[in-house]
Specification:
With 423 residues, this protein is an alpha+beta fold. The chain is built from 13 helices and 22 strands. The strands form six sheets. The chain has a six-stranded mixed sheet, with no helix packed on it. Strands 18-19-20-21-22 form a five-stranded antiparallel sheet, sandwiched between helices. Strand 1 (5-10) and strand 2 (14-16) form a beta hairpin. The longest helix is centred in the C-terminal third of the chain and has 16 residues, at 407-422. The radius of gyration is 37 Å and the shape is elongated. The chain starts with a strand and ends with a helix.
Length: 423
């Protein structure tokens, strides 16, 4: 190649030096991972041969013209010496920029000149901007960039800075380059304002940040339109919400309170204490089924039996919370019963009214009894019960059967003892 100037053709995979000789970008010093060309356009550059190293086979070139016509012709002349690598001198950013479809400016800085340093300052100041790209520029003029174009930014937004609302999430952005401070929204029909109360569950599942793609549409460097989308927010679907719903219920096991005036909670009170009521929307039956299906407890069969065969329909299931999380079932046959079953317990507590005509408020008796057991233990309450003259109710403890039996045998033995006591 005796001619000092050459025409080359470029696309997103190779650089063609002649009709038969081409180089991958790995055989050049251009950081191809940092940019891409518009795939709908074939580019031809005029380059000047600057220096050839016969030992390494490296040819250094400079770009003279970035905008040769689309019908430019490559030489068919073969090089006099083997070319193993093509080294480009720095590219003129004002001429290179209109040709590229996407770029990561920080990775291009060492390969370009004639750029505004303040743009890099903007990138450095906005640490949450991961990359940027112009979208389908309207022209490829050599000296004048297009007056109308779009700019894309990839941001990371903290969930704690965002706000859940009906069918959307909103968040603030600040793009100093365009002096833009704005509140943006991303739509998702699964989102609800109540999710603000359980935002920690979304962070636990999805991470502290969600990624957002911002597209600015500009005219003469002024923002005409701005849109936002997020694949992370799109992940919040019915399945994710259902799993968070289950986690929210199971976390009630660890709910603590300093209240000494409250021992029993109905479903509404329990949810309110745990500050998860708006998300759950579950009945007492649903809540118990979640525990039975997901809590990995030893006495699931006992809980299932009490819920389906003993609990009176239309009567509220009641709960006790930590340190003894459990369920209080109300049973009414020929007599009135309250049955307290704890998670992973080895005993079932039963209170029954032994006088059908008694005006004793057995519910109050049970609430007082559970308060004593939670505070001082079962043996203290047993002594307290035995010291009551004519209490008007019976108290019993049905122990879960020995572990040397099969699971089926243990359950049947427990069921038999319970039925005998309640008969």
């Amino acid at each position: 190649m005796s001619n000092q100037y050459l025409t080359i053709r470029l696309d997103n995979t190779k650089i063609y030096l002649t009709g038969s000789i081409s180089f991958t970008y790995d055989q050049t010093n251009l950081p191809k991972e940092a940019f891409s060309f518009n795939p709908e356009r074939t580019l031809f550059w005029k380059i000047e041969q600057k220096k050839y190293d016969p030992i390494s086979g490296e040819l250094t070139v400079g770009v003279v013209d970035y905008n040769l016509s689309d019908n430019a012709i490559l030489t068919e002349n073969k090089p006099k010496h083997p070319i193993r690598k093509l080294n480009f001198e720095k590219l003129d950013w004002t001429k290179f920029f209109p040709l590229i479809y996407s770029y990561t400016l920080s990775k291009l800085k060492k390969m370009i000149f004639n750029y505004k340093e303040e743009y890099f300052s903007f990138i450095n100041e906005n640490k949450n901007i991961e990359s940027s790209k112009p979208i389908a520029p309207k022209s490829f003029a050599e000296h004048n960039p297009p007056t109308k174009w779009a700019e894309e930014f990839n941001l990371r937004i903290k969930y704690e800075d965002a706000k859940f609302d009906a069918s959307k999430i909103s968040f603030p952005i600040h793009l100093k380059q365009y002096k833009l401070v704005k509140q943006l929204e991303i739509n998702n029909n699964n989102l609800r304002p109540e999710f603000e109360l359980i935002k920690s569950y979304f962070i636990r599942r999805l991470g502290r940040f969600f990624r957002v793609k911002i597209i600015l549409r500009l005219l003469n460097n002024k923002v005409e339109e701005i849109t936002a989308e997020s694949s992370d927010i799109n992940r919040i679907d019915e399945n994710l919400i259902k799993s968070i719903r289950v986690s929210s219920v199971l976390d009630l096991r660890h709910l603590k309170t300093d209240r000494e005036d409250k021992v029993l909670y109905n479903t509404k009170e329990l949810f309110a204490e745990g500050k998860v009521q708006p998300l759950l929307e579950v009945s007492p039956k649903d809540l118990l089924e979640i525990f039975i299906a997901n809590a990995n407890v030893k006495n699931t069969r006992q809980l299932d039996y009490l819920a389906k065969d003993k609990q009176v329909l239309n009567e509220q299931l009641q709960f006790t919370i930590k340190p003894l999380f459990g369920f209080v079932f109300y049973v009414f046959a020929d007599k009135q019963y309250f049955i307290w079953e704890l998670l992973n317990s080895h005993a079932t507590y039963v209170w029954k009214n032994n006088d059908t005509e008694s005006k004793l408020d057995l519910g109050k008796v049970v609430e007082e009894a559970i308060g004593i057991i939670k505070k001082d233990g079962r043996e203290v309450y047993k002594k307290y019960y035995k010291g009551i003259d004519n209490p008007g109710f019976d108290f019993g403890v049905i122990m879960h059967s020995s572990s040397n039996l099969t699971e089926e045998e243990r359950f049947n033995e427990w069921k038999r003892r319970l039925e005998e006591y309640c008969s």
